[in-house]
Amino acid sequence: MKNLLAIIGICCAAACSKSDSNEPDPPLPPASFSMTSITIDNTAMRDSSFGVKPLPQIAAVFSTSVDEATVGKAVKLTNTANQEQAVTLDLSPDGKTLTIQPAASLTALSKYKLGISNQLKSAAGGNFSSIVSKMLFTAVDPTPKMPAISDQALLDRLQQQTFRYFWEGAHPVSGLARERSNSGDVVTSGGSGFGIMAILAAIDRGFITRAEGLQRLQTITGFLAEKAVRYHGAFPHWLNGATGATVPFSAKDNGADLVETSYLVMGLLSARQYFDQAAAAEADLRTTINALCDAVDWNFFRKDNGNVLYWHWSPDYAWEMNMPIRGWNECLITYVLAAASRTHAIPASAYTEGWAQNGSNGFVNGKSFYGITLPLGPDYGGPLFFSQYSFLGLDPNGLSDAWAAYDVQNEAHSQINQLYCDNNPRGYYGYSDSVWGLTASDIPGGYTASSPTNDVGVIAPTAALSAFPYTPTASMKALKYFYYTLGDKIWKDYGFVDAFRLHDPWFADSFLAIDQGPIIIMVENYRSGLLWRMFTSAPEVKAGLKKLGFNAPYL
Fold it and tell me: Which segments constitute the Glycoamylase-like domain (predicted)?
C-alpha cells in the first residue's frame, strides 16, 4: 500500500511539473535608456554654456528610439523666474536624435535652464535613466544701445554724468561724498577728497560755475573744520554726514585712517591751488584748507617715531589694527603728503625704510608679463587702483626716484591688466581687449580687490576708464563698448554702475565714491592735466617730493 501511494505521488508531481513547464515566462520590463551626447550649435554641451546665441540649436542623442508622445512633457526650457519658454522639438526618423530650439529669440545676457525629465520614455516604454539639467547663459547683444557721438562728446558725457554722484548725490548737510549712492548719512573722507577734485574738473568743463563750486567747497571745509571728528588731525574712514561723528569702518577701525586722510588732503590742496583769486571768499577758503592740512600730525602715525607710518589709530584700541603702510600699493600719496607737511613732516628715512623697504619684500618686481616689464609691486601689478589713487593729483609724467620711473610703472601696470583680460586665461565669457579692468569693486554678494591673481570674472568700469592717461586707445575702446554695447545694462543716473559680469550675467546697482571719482579726475588729467597741475603746484608738495628723492620736470 505504501509503495502504491509513493508511485501515485511521483506521477502527480511529474504531471504538475509537466503542466508548469508549458506556461510562458513573464515578459521582461522594457530596458531603460540614456542620453549618449548633447550638443549646442554643434559644440559639446557642458553643464553650463556661456555666450549662447539668441536661437541656439540643441541636439540630444539617445541610446534608443524615444516615444515622440512623451517628448513634449519631458523637455522644459525656463528662465530665472521659472517661466517656461516655448520650444520647437524635432525627432529624427530613427527616433534617436531630438533637436530642441527656442520658439523665439532668448533675451541677451540672461540665464536659462534646459531640463529633460524622466517623463521621457523609449519607443518600447523604457524609462529614461539620466535626468538632464543644463544652464544656458546668453551672449551680449552687439547692437548699439546709444546714439553715436564724437569721442570728445562721449568723454564730456562720461565726466558730466559721473559728476552727478558728487553734486546731486552728495550729503545735503556736509556736502561730503556718500560712501555709496544708497549709504544715507555715511560719508567717506577719502572719497570726498576725490569728490573735491571732481568739483574742480566740473568747474573747468563748465558743468557748474566757479561760484557754485566755491560755495560747495565752503560747505565741505566748514563741516570738516567745525563738526567732523579728528584724531591727531586725521579723519576717520567714515563719518556721519550730518553730525560729523565717526562711523566705525570695522570693529577696531573706529578712529583715524591715515590713508583716507591723505586722499582728502590731496583734494583739499588741489582746491586751495585752484581757488587762487584775491576775493575774500577764496582767501578764506584757502585759510581753512591750510588749517585742516596743517593739523594732521603725520609724525604721530610713525608710532613712537619709528621709520614707518601706520594706517590706523583708535582712541579705544590704539594701534591694535597694526597695519604699517608699506609699498607697493595705493598709499604712495600718504608718504608724499607726510613728507610735505608744513607742521609735522616725517623724515625721508620713513619713506626709504618704511614704504620702499629698501627695495625688498616684493617692492621691486622687474619681471616681464605679456612681454611688458613691471618695475614695482606684485606679479601682474595687483588691482588697478594701485596706479590710480595716488596719481589723481601726483603727476607721474617724468616722475622718478631711486626705485622707478612712475609713468613707466603705471603704463606697464595698466597694459598688463588689459592684456591679461584679453588673453583671458580663466576663460570667462565676455573678456576681451574691449572688456577689461580689474580693481576693487562690488561683486555678487560682496566686495573684493580684483586683479589678475584674484580674478572672479567681474569687470569694474572705473579700472579701464581711470587708466585713460596710461592706455588711451585701450581705455577709449572700453568706454565705447561699455557705453554703446552695454549701456542699457550699466549706464545709469551717476554714470556707469560699479561693476558687472558677463560670464554669468550680473550687473551692480551700486555706485561708490572711490570708484566714480577717479573716472572724472583721470579722464580730466588725460584731457588737460588739470588736477596734476593743481596738486603739484603746491609748494609743500614740491618740497616733499624733493625731500624723498624724487625728480620731475615740475619740481
Answer: 324-538
* pTM, two decimal places: 0.92
Do 162 and 111 sit in the same domain of this protein? no
Q: For the domain that residue 161 is a member of, what is the CATH number?
A: 1.50.10.140
CATH code where residue 113 lies: 2.60.40.1220
Cβ-Cβ contacts under 8 Å for 446 (sequence gap 6 or more): none
> The dihedral of CA 256, 259, 262, 263: what is its sign?
negative
Query: Are residues 172 and 68 part of one domain?
Result: no
Q: What pLDDT band is residue 21 in, cutting at 50, 70 and 90?
A: low
Q: What is the DSSP letter of 390?
A: G
Cα separation, 103 vs 222, whole angstroms: 63
Q: How many CA within 13 A on the CB side of residue 351?
A: 23
Mean pLDDT of the chain: 95
Do 188 and 128 belong together in one domain? Answer: no
So what's the pLDDT on residue 13?
44
Is 200 contained in some domain?
yes
Average pLDDT over residues 185-189: 98
Domain that holds residue 70: 35-138
CA distance 498 to 462: 7
**Contact at 8 Å (CB) between 510 and 519?**
no
Residue 192 lies in a domain: yes
DSSP assignments along 99-137, one per residue: EEEESSPPPTT-EEEEEE-TT-BBTT-PBB-S-EEEEEE
Q: Are residues 260 and 307 in the same domain?
A: yes
Q: What residues contact 66, with CB distance under 8 A and at least 6 apart?
A: 33, 91, 95, 96, 98, 120, 121, 122, 123
CA distances from 127 to 33, 58, 124, 240, 550 (A): 6, 22, 9, 65, 77
| DSSP class of 15 | H
* Angstrom distance (rounded) from CA 391 to CA 190: 14
| 552: pLDDT strictly greater than 90 | yes
Helices (H), 360-471: 406-423, 461-465
Strand partners, 87: 102
